Amino acid sequence: QQGVTDTEIVIGDILPLTGPPALLGVAHNLGVKAAVAEANAAGGINGRKLRLISEDDGYVPSRTIQGVRKLINSDKIFAFTSISGTAQAQAAMPLIKQTGIPAMAPITTYEGLYQPTIKNVFAVGYDMRQAVYELVSQMADRYPNKKWAVISQDDDYGQNVRDGFERAAKEKKLQVVSSQIFKKGQSDFSSEILKVKQAGAEALMAGGVLGENVTMTKELERIGHKIPVGVTYVSRVPASAKMMGSAGENVYTVDYVYLESSPEAKGFMGKLEQHLSAEERARVNRYTFTGYSAARALFAAMDKCGKALTWDCTNAELAKLKNLETGAMTPISFAADDHLAAPKLFLLKADPAATTYKLVQ
Amino acid sequence: MREGGTVTFMTPTIATSAAPPPALAIHNIQVVYGGAIEAVRDVSLEVRPGQIVALLGSNGAGKSTVLKAVSGVLDAEDGVIEKGSILLNGRAVEKDPAPAIVRQGMVQVPEGRRLFQTLTVDENLITGAHLQSAAKLAQARDFVFSLFPRLAEMRQTTAGYLSGGEQQMVAIGRALMSQPKILALDEPSLGLAPLVVSEIFRCIQTLRETTGLTILLVEQNASRALAIADYAYIMENGRVVMDGTSEQLRRNADVREFYLGLSSQPGRTSMKDVKHYKRRKRWLS
Amino acid sequence: MRSGFFKQGYGELVVLTDSPAVKWWTAALLVVMALAPFVLGNFLLSHLTIILFTTVGALGLMVLTGFTGLISLGHVGFLMLGGYAYAIAVTRWGLPPEIALVLSAVLPALFGLIVGIPSLRLHGLYLAITTLAFAHIVSAAILAGGELTGGGSGIMVERPVVLGMDLSSDRAFYWFCLGVCALAVLLVLNLRRSYVGRALVAVRDNDIAARTMGISLVHYKLLAFLISAALTGLAGGLMAIYMSFVSVEGYPFLLSIEALAIVIVGGIGSVLGAVLGTVFIVTLPEVFASLMSFLGGRLAETMTTSAHEVKTILYGIAIIAFLRFDPRGLRGIWHDLRHTWVHWPLRY
Amino acid sequence: MNYFIELVVSGLAIGAIYGLVAMSFAVIFKATGIVNFAQGEMGMLTAYTSWSIATALGTDAVSTILVSVAVGAALGLICERLIMRPMLGEPVLSVVLVTVGLAVVLRALVTLIWGAAPHKFAVEGADTIVDLGGIGLRAGQITVIVVLLIAIAGFWFFLRHSRFGVAMRAVASDEKTARLMGVSTARVQAVAWASASGLAGLAGAFFAVIYGLAPTIYEIGLKAFPATVLGGFDSVLGSAFSGLFIGVLENLVGGYLPSTLKEIAGFVLILVVLMVRPFGLFGEKRIERV
Amino acid sequence: MSAVQQTPVLEATRISKRFGGVKAVNDVSLKVMPGEIVSLIGPNGAGKTTTFNLVSGVLPPSDGQIRFQGRDTAGLKSHQFARLGIGRTFQNLALFRHGTVVENLLVGRHIHFRYPVWESLVYWGRSRREEIAAREKVEQVIEFLEIEELRDKPVSQLAYGQQKRVELGRALACEPSLLLLDEIVAGMNREEKEDIARFTLDIRDEFGIAVLMIEHDMQVVMDLSDRVYVLDFGCLIAEGTPAEVAANPAVLAAYLGEEGAHA
Ligand SMILES: Nc1ncnc2c1ncn2[C@@H]1O[C@H](COP(=O)(O)OP(=O)(O)OP(=O)(O)O)[C@@H](O)[C@H]1O
Ligand SMILES: Nc1ncnc2c1ncn2[C@@H]1O[C@H](COP(=O)(O)OP(=O)(O)OP(=O)(O)O)[C@@H](O)[C@H]1O
Ligand SMILES: CC(C)C[C@H](N)C(=O)O
Ligand SMILES: [Mg+2]
Ligand SMILES: [Mg+2]
User: Fold this and answer.
1) Looking at residue B2, what is its pLDDT?
2) Which residue of C lies nearest to D279 if distances are taken between CA atoms?
3) Strands B79-88 and B24-33
4) Nearest 5°: CA angle at C68, between C62 and C70?
5) Spatial distance between the Cα atoms of C129 and C221, rounded to a whole number of angstroms
6) Which of E140, E159, E175 is the last residue of a domain?
7) Which residues lie with the beta carbon below 6 Å from any ligand 1 atom?
8) Residue E94: which residues within 8 A CB-CB, separation 6 or more?
9) Residue of D nearest to E88 (CA)
10) Is A108 in the pocket of ligand 3 (CB under 6 A)?
11) What is the dihedral of CA B174, B175, B176, B182, to 10 degrees?
């Protein structure tokens, strides 16, 4: 099989290592690297050392396609530990489907990745739409009878946010007074937020990736419109809490990845200490957890295939994976007809004082 | 210039000693454009303080190239001085940048005017006085306006909209603004009406007389140039083919025929009567 | 050294080249290019393919900026229109790919006419900015295009069968691009040596004088935009086939800049320059990438996260150093080499 | 009505940043006749450098402003000296492309040194919300508006009353002849770059303080483009005011129309304006003569 | 001039041009008959070049009428003037500076190409034939002006005087019926002026092209012109044979000066 020699297995990932969400891609890549280092330290997979090739797509779908093509055709990798953001994965999917290469999709999980089931694609994480639905529903329970607004990005990721939001709004019979779409990469949100206030919204679902959400909450603070804000788990990183500062007081999210400070993550944080440099550890965030988990799941399946490592075997083994404990998130399981490892969700609230998020009981 | 005399803004140079060092001396320079075209070959010339030296020659002979070399702006056209040296008041300047040369008192009126088209006449003059103090600027400007009264009326006009002749006046005025000690003029009479040409030449002469300004003059109007020059060089095909005092040259038969338009017979030949196209390069022999 | 300074007829004065050596070299190059897929690996082949269709687009910009002197910062807009025209024609309207490719040239060409209209009044940077605005507006329109354009999600396109050639094979697609590219080069060369090409250059060098020669600025500026947009659009169509995907983000402003870089690094106003420039600009980052993995070894592995930056920095520095070294571009260097070759050991 | 005023006021805050960048474009254009495509990147690099300095040495508002001007100017001087100076006298397009190369390098350099993660540029008091008759503005936003006004006044004085300003324009008009007149084109270029980068540096630093420090700050360069065009490429003051205007326009479009239109509002506006005035609102007319 | 009935090549009737408040050309009427060499002289800034610009369509007149071979030019676009048969040179060189001499001359022949634009892409058959024919014509011009050695040089590398000659060639390549020369001998020495003078006469005699020229060189004006117009401050102040004009006191005062007349 391609990418496999007697001594080595080449694997790859494609991520936004530059561009607006680079923070997330880089952290994710660190998780994958930690998993690789851990496996190699333990003697590799069935005696073969792992080698990782990381490709950058700058969060641009067409570059994702090029990168995927390069990894498969030129670098001849054996499997993908990660496939970039929503729109990016969407664009690359036909190519990946066509080749049959085992591919983990742990960054943003959305319906297109697992429904209908794709033989060689495995989504690790909670469906984004579903997560937004959960978040908005839970917030609606906490803050009943509020008028809602939603601001989302103009791509597939934003579409997922809108879909989840709309479902929740319908089920909870929320009154939605403003729904806005912004152009990816925008930095000033003053008019959007003024519009939210003007419309009389009392709660907001902010569907930006990271900096956008920060700016939105800060604008709310500036115009003195203090309302609860929901953000997706993408934003659940220390940097965002820090940048929001006092504006983050009313920000909620849901996540399936353990908090860095939680007791469950203790073991995992220890491993990072072992395999990453201090400089790298400073860049760790929840995406490191997802990267690590996905890579671990992939390696577990590859391990089961023994010496005769093939794509088909790996895909088959992945589909049989049950309750894999990674220490980074709740256990991962797949089934033949279910390639989504949907771990458990927690509701979280930003804690500006501690510049982090904390569990909401 | 309105009746001479009043020009006092320049420090007169003492032109007394028997053989003062040349104000400008060029020794055997060779200039190459773009690493491939040799425009000037082995040219030497000398201008003594207070002299007017004329540089004559047909189109493409390399006159402008010599002036550009002296002013240090060849690099803008991908030209280099491959050999030879240029001395300004005894100092080698062939490697100096243009502003350094201006600071040493040598300014050029470039060929084809080259005004700052988007600037007004006034601003063009101000740029000419870039290295001068504000007080001297006003003084120099008054002088230029006395020389070209027409410009005083057009101070606020955008230079690009002036007529060709008016532009030439601005160009000369602009160079005078820096109160130079040596002035290089590249075809100053180009495109000027006869009345103005006379004026310009008279003014060049007056300038020299009253201020001791040293002048290197490239001209096509040979009779005019020789009339006011002390000494002259003639260039052909990148070389100096002849030099001498104006007197000597004016008597030379070839110069008379090809530069002054005076045939061997007395009286002027009408241009209509020139029967054949003349061939160049006869100087090369 | 060449001989043959003596011509027997005026026809010999208008040929593309009067040197047998150049003819031989060109023929040899074409043969080598045609045979390349049999020896080259996947990676090099796709690299060459990229060069080929990029050349087509670069020629487009060369006609506009290089010949006519109209600077465009918005060529990516034409590229985008070409790509989307192809994608929409094939996937939404089910048109045959041949017609879709024609559309990918025609539609941008029509837009070229519209963008060209301001060029009659605007000069230099002001025009450049309007073209930039045009590109922005095109991408905004595509984003707002709903079902037709797929909005932010873009459109997937399958590799088609064109004129009986199944382009899903990389080799076939390479040959197809080679054909298109060679044809484009020939057409632009012909254009340049005809009165049309000379009129374009005249407009660039001195529009008032051009007018007194009987050249209509309106006519020729619009023509330049038309031809330029058509070529660039065609390149966009090819690029869409290559990528199998079009999305607005696949056409960042940077592409406009890279296109300009090609034209300038190659040498303004020269067809040869467009080709050389494309090879240079497209290959440069790859060279640095392989250089880094070659030199880097383990180092490259540990710096995966910065590799992209280092590569980019080297790329930028290379462009700066290059222009610093010879602002006339590759064509200038080419001429110098030839001059030295012909005249050596004499210098002038 | 209040909504309208709030939109306008918020627009002024972002517009002031556009204005600063637009001015910096115009300064370099006026002096050298080229557009520096690395202007946004200069702002970004300045913002990051100032941030590092500020975190090391403490962060009071006034010294942060001074540091960012100084850092910006210094960066400008360095770039001019190392990269632009050797290009003096070369064809405009080549020089412009060099600035594009510079932009690419600076952009990558920032990510290389500081990483891609966004940071907060905390300056004491910058986040304080000041109540202006019912409209809240952050102190940082008010300051940037004030700084822009000061810059406008300063440049007005400089261009109006100094011969250096004239020399700058002479260089842009005809570099070679300017040198013949004794103008040191290198010095003119250096001053232009230093002051332009100082302005861009201010813009970058303020942007970072208000919206956070991220490697996308350079986009202010692109955003300020329409402002420069609207004002006229060679009109420093016109560009500054146009920046304010475009900021407000974007906000009004965002406020009353679908907000995706906001991103192209500036470009649509300049298209319209250029059709009427082909050299911007305050730009110098091109000379067309034979 | 023999027949009085002949239609003038050029007939400008009471043309004026205002720039803002300035009247650069004021109520000027002039006429050029076939086979004539006519000069237009006057002090700097008198409006001579502006008159040329009006006559050659570069600028629209504010007032007045311009007839070319009897045809009214009102409403014509500026690029259409060339097709009427007007060729001109420019006072401040306006060559296509990136092109070679040959290319510049070929641009001069622009109006003589008949094949459609798309055929240029093919460059075969008709287009090739026309290109060859044009090239042949250009070679004749090159030979006529004796600039063979400059043929393939980029014009930006030529000295000032050489560029002027190329401009003349470019105008000739147009095969105009009226040639406008704006200070063509400026920047030439006596010998070169004589050459140009000879060319000018031959252009008229051999090709039958009428010439209207602006010139500050009185020898050239006096020796070549059949008639002379004198402009001052935009107004015609004199007109007549060279001798008449040279004797006109107004002209002497405004333009020639005491010595200019015989310089
Ligand atoms: N920038 C340049 N690049 C290449 N060759 C040049 C350049 N400038 C001038 N030359 C060549 O150098 C030679 C001398 O040119 P130069 O301008 O010095 O002549 P000149 O004596 O001033 O002529 P004119 O009287 O016409 O002004 C000419 O043959 C010209 O073709
Ligand atoms: N496009 C223009 N805009 C404004 N003013 C102009 C324009 N063209 C010419 N002028 C003005 O009109 C007047 C006549 O200029 P013109 O160029 O016709 O003079 P000229 O007779 O050719 O002079 P010269 O002999 O010096 O070339 C001048 O005062 C000039 O400043
Ligand atoms: C890593 C992130 C950029 C993913 C983002 N939420 C997306 O799907 O687009
Ligand atoms: Mg000369
Ligand atoms: Mg004139």
Assistant:
1) 36
2) C126
3) antiparallel
4) 85
5) 17
6) E175
7) B 33-34, 37, 39, 57, 59-65, 77, 111; E 157-161, 187
8) C206, C208, C209, D290, E167
9) D290
10) yes
11) 180
CATH 3.30.300 fits D1-276, yes or no: no
Give me the residue label for tokens 């391609």: A2
- Any CB–CB contact under 8 A between D173 and chain B? yes
Domain boundaries defined on chain D: 1-276
- Band (pLDDT 50/70/90 cuts) for residue D131 is confident
So what's the pLDDT on residue C337? 82
Phi, psi of E191 (to 5 degrees): -60, -45
Which among D91, D97, D286 has CB closest to C260?
D97
Please indicate whether, in this complex, the C-beta atoms of B195 and E255 are within 8 angstroms of each other.
yes
Q: Of E175, E200, E235, which residue is a domain's last? A: E175
ipTM above 0.90, yes or no: no
Residue at E190 is within a domain: yes
Give the D:E interface size as CB pairs under 8 Å.
Answer: 7
Residues E79 and E116 in one domain: no
**Is there a cis peptide before residue C345, judged by omega within 30 degrees of 0?**
yes
Secondary structure of residue A110 in the 3-state scheme: coil
Q: DSSP letter for A335, please.
A: B
Which whole-number Å values give the CA distances from C130 to C113, C127, C319, in the listed order?
13, 5, 26
Low-confidence ranges of chain C (pLDDT < 70): 1-18, 293, 295-308, 344-348
User: Rounded to the nearest whole angstrom, what is the distance from the C-alpha of residue E156 to the centroid of ligand 4?
Assistant: 13
What Å distances lie between residue D198 and A79, C116, D192, CA to CA?
Answer: 49, 37, 10
Sort out which chain D residues have CB atoms less than 8 A from A23's CB and list them.
Answer: 115-118
Structural domain for E37, as ranges: 1-85+176-263
Amino acid at D132: L
Phi, psi of B265 (to 5 degrees): -75, 155
What are the sequence ranges of the domains in chain B? 13-105+180-251, 115-178
Residue E91 lies in a domain: no
Residues of D with CB below 8 A from B126's CB?
163, 166
Q: Chains with 3 or more CB pairs closer than 8 angstroms to C? A: A, B, D, E
For residue range B212-239, list pLDDT tens digits in order: 889 999 988 888 888 889 999 998 888 8
Give Cα D235 to chain centroid, integer Å: 13
DSSP secondary structure, C113-136, as one string: HHHHGGGGT--HHHHHHHHHHHHH
Q: Determine the straight-line distance between the first and last CA of chain C, rounded to whole angstroms.
A: 15
Q: Smallest Cα–Cα separation from E246: which of E228, E224, E226?
A: E228
How much is the pTM?
0.89
Residues of D in contact with E90 (CB under 8 A): 290
pLDDT tens-digit map of C94-110? 999 999 999 999 999 99
Could you check whether the bond before residue B110 is cis, i.e. omega within 30 degrees of 0? no
Determine the CATH number of domain B13-105+180-251. 3.40.50.300
Closest CA to E215 of E235, E195, E193, E233: E193
Alpha-carbon distance B223 to B246, whole Å? 10
How confident is the model over D176-226, as pLDDT tens digits? 888 888 888 888 889 999 999 999 999 999 999 999 898 889 999 988 989
